[in-house]
Specification:
By secondary structure, the chain is mainly α. It has one domain (about 1-40). The chain is about 70% helix and about 0% strand. It has two helices and no strands. It is elongated and about 40 Å long.
């Protein structure tokens, strides 16, 4: 999700579409939160690892 967020953010900045930039930032933040929870060892949605 982090990579998808970065890609959308870059595409949005290049094409100058603000909604794509906003969606990219949201996906990037969600991906970072899930990554931090995964590193902390907490189960997310009943799963220990997301592959």
């Amino acid at each position: 999700m982090i990579i998808l967020g970065i890609v959308l953010l870059v595409i949005g900045l290049i094409v100058k579409i603000t909604i794509v930039v906003t969606i990219g930032i949201i996906i990037l933040v969600i991906g970072a939160i899930l990554a931090l929870l995964g590193v902390a060892g907490r189960e997310i949605g009943g799963r220990r690892h997301w592959y």
